[in-house]
Amino acid sequence: MTDRKDREIIEEIRSGNVDAFEKLIVRYENRVFAIVSRHLPADKAAETAHDVFCRAYRSLGGYRPEKPFEHWISKVAVRTCCDYWRRNKRSREIAFSAFEKDGREVLDAILSEKANDQYNVERRRLHARELLDRLLGRLPAEDRMALSLTYLEGHSLREAAEMMDWSAARMKVRSHRARRALQKALPEVLDETGGHS
Amino acid sequence: MNNKNEKSRRLETALRDAYHHPPRVRPDEQWRKGVMAEVRDAAAKPERANGPIFVPPVFFRLAPLLAGASVAVFAMGWSAMGSLYNELAVTVLTNLPRTAELYLFGL
Questions:
Q1: Cα–Cα distance, A106 to A108 (Å, whole number)
Q2: H/E stretch holding A68
Q3: Which residues of B fall within a CB distance of 8 Å from A131?
Q4: pLDDT tens per residue, range A101-138
Q5: How many CA atoms lie less than 13 Å away from A65 in the CB half-sphere?
Q6: B93 touches A at CB < 8 Å
């Protein structure tokens, strides 16, 4: 059920007060930025979050208040991210080691267990994020989204399917295929970079 | 092998951790203004935003008329073809030797 405050704001927008939409932006911008930042590179987050709210405004006529607005705007955000990856296709198959002067050093930083201070934790996350982007970049947009929603975010197949407006069977096939591709790619990364820690 | 599996598992854990801690990007006033400018722009032309984009409504009004016209043209073409075939059959049958000559030697 939609929050009372949200319902009032949406009514206000529907009755012609466009400026009331800013209240919805303020209420949900953090949520949208969090979703978009997980799915897309950091430099595309603001631009895509902008698209999410514009798309939400244009689709507001189709919003039904039986479900919380937060769920609805989250779905719009996830689908906008998928559209981004559809437009930007998948990157060509390039070996991880081909990107770095020393791929082994990067992998060591990711696998290091000594990194306990904040600086090293951040550095490790940065490298891991870069590697994750490259691995996900090998997948088609739909598989990438399926893997992110089910495996990385831990949504159930049904929840993930609802977010993408797919059937549960389609989500199952996509996420299974993507998971298999990731499991195949991880040992390859370890082989290509030497796998020392 | 076990060592490799262990590394693979650790790598997977590190990737999941990185996914849940993306670099922070925060919305600011400038960003909000940009969104609102586009929203106001969209609100100023609601028909374009909500109406059919590729097919104008006038097409739907003319569609039955166009469909009727195509059926009529098809029927006319069909009957014309029928009479042409009849005429050809009569010509062939009434003057068979000449037709054979034309067919064989193209004279």
A1: 5
A2: none
A3: 15, 18
A4: 556 667 777 777 666 677 778 888 888 898 898 889 88
A5: 11
A6: no
Tokens of B56: 């104008």
Integer angstrom CA distances of residue A191 from A43, A145, B16, B27, B86 = 31, 26, 20, 40, 79
| Complex-level ipTM beyond the 0.85 threshold | no
Instruction: Report d(CA A195, CA B88) in Å as an integer.
Output: 84
* Residue owning tokens 């722009």: B41
Q: Nearest to residue B15, comparing CAs of A107, A58, A98, A61?
A: A107
- Whether residue B31 and residue A131 make contact (CB cut-off 8 A), yes or no, is no
Contacts 24+ apart (CB under 8 A), A53-56: A53/A21, A53/A24, A53/A25, A53/A29, A53/B35, A53/B39, A54/B35, A54/B38, A54/B39, A54/B42, A55/A80, A56/A24
* Res B52: pLDDT: 46
What is the Cβ-side half-sphere exposure of residue A46, based on CA atoms within 13 angstroms? 13
DSSP-assigned letter for residue A92: P
